[in-house]
Write a structure and sequence with these properties.
Elements lengths: L1 H16 L16 E6 L6 H10 L7 E6 L11 E2 L13 H8 L4 E5 L5 H9 L4 E4 L10 E2 L7 H16 L1
Parallel strand pairs: 1-2, 1-4, 2-3, 4-5, 5-6
Helix pairs in contact: 1-4
């Protein structure tokens, strides 16, 4: 138990030191590859998120999803990660997590209603060009945050693209 507490503290320190990269001056807000980091409790929204992005011209094969789970199983399902995947020094050796954060997504969606250290770590460490969150917590991790009372995909996507159109002009 104390080992997990140390891991969480290390992850928080990594997040606090992370710097959000500025958007490139020539960024067109054209999203071809999207990463979504989400808590397992909110995973029921994944099909709706994929459908909403498909409606806006994003190929579903270009959407990668990483799901955080608090379950303490030895072997997690593919595309899932947990606190056990992190080291006491605030790093990870989980290949799926490393591949996800190394990928230069056009857009990263941090779609979780409850903030946990592993989720914010992935958001902070991601090499995505444009990062969007759904909370007013940890706004320094995202270029843009939409505060939602409840996670609701259609409203989120509608407002996201409404504001993106404002950014474009």
């Amino acid at each position: 138990m104390w080992f997990n507490t140390l891991k969480k503290r290390s992850l928080k320190k990594v997040v606090e030191k992370a710097k959000l990269n500025a958007l490139p001056v020539d960024f067109k807000y054209d999203f071809k590859e999207i990463g979504i980091v989400i808590d397992k409790a909110d995973a029921r929204f994944i099909p709706d998120l994929i459908k909403a992005f498909e409606k806006r011209g994003v190929n579903s094969h270009k959407i990668k999803i990483l799901i955080y789970t608090s379950e303490n199983k030895k072997k997690l399902d593919q595309g899932h990660f947990g606190l056990k995947d992190f080291t006491i020094s605030g790093g990870t050796e989980n290949i799926e997590v490393l591949d996800f954060i190394d990928k230069k997504f056009d857009l990263l969606i941090s779609y979780y209603s409850v903030t946990t250290s592993p989720l914010t770590w992935v958001t902070a460490k991601s090499n995505a060009i444009f990062k969007v969150g759904v909370s007013d917590e940890n706004t320094e991790l995202n270029h843009f945050s939409l505060t939602l009372k409840t996670l609701e995909v259609e409203g989120f996507i509608e407002y996201l693209f409404k504001y993106i159109n404002v950014f474009k002009h």
